[in-house]
Fold this sequence. Notes:
By secondary structure, the protein is α+β, with helices and mostly antiparallel strands.
Amino acid sequence: MARFFKRKSAAPAADETPTAAPATSPRRRDFSELKPDPDKIGISGSVPFVRLPDPARLFADRSARLLEAAPGHPMEAYLRFVAEVARAQAVIQAKGPPASLPEASDLALRSEHGMPPLSRHSLEADRGFDDGLLALLAELDLTTAPEASVAARESLRAASREDRLDLALQVFEGALPVDRIAECVFVSAALQVRLAEQAAWLDTKTLKPVADGVCPCCGGAPVASVIVAWTPADKARYLSCSLCGTYWNHVRIRCTACGDGEGVSYYGLDEVSKDVQVETCTTCHSYIKHLHQHRAPTLDPVADDIASYGLDLKIAEEGFRRAGLNLLFVI
């Protein structure tokens, strides 16, 4: 039986491995709550606000992680499908041509008004995006993919450039049309490549916080929360953007959706991983995946969010809704 545990107050520091409370009944374990102490989270001094993506490694590493998690997994077929998408992303990223940044004047204006430098306007002006999307569709091997995915690829190929751009703009703004979800996966993959390339060229000194749960580079939503082990950010918390792959620093004990810190707790499933949990907020009843990358460096926000779907199913039973967004796994 799956063991679902909630971490308890007066426990050790936030990044220690939780243990399940003793059960008096085989049907359910006692729940307990963790109220982490901000002074015991393993952080000293200042940490970088952002870590920009490395497009040359991002997608190849993700594909490898997905293939590592796939064998014997209940969702093995889907993990292998997304691994193929990530492999194709790596190929088209390597072949280029590289993306260019918006005009310096536009970047300065957006920075002055506290807006992310990458916007829908830069996407509209980027004709290379559509070429990248078509290259991705051509690169994909969908031999073992579901029929819906094959049909979605052909639908995108047959669509006009304007229609593909319109769908990309909807994905960029988080308004995914339900009747085109299968197409959105491929469009999202092409967007991730283009935006990661653009984000990688930004000047970190000009990037500023936008709002809770909003990427400072492109305005995207986070896919997961990650405890990292980089120097000098050991055990600091970052959010990983679902679009451009940027990591940005976020207060360790604060909800990424509403900003509250009073109702934050952590849940996990022994059968999933001790290094992948969910962070919940009783104020807004939302949750986000919480990855302990400092203990398991190969964890990938996109890959391990999919591989830990059992946590989504269980936490939904507790009345929480998902705050993170995984564009390659819309649930």
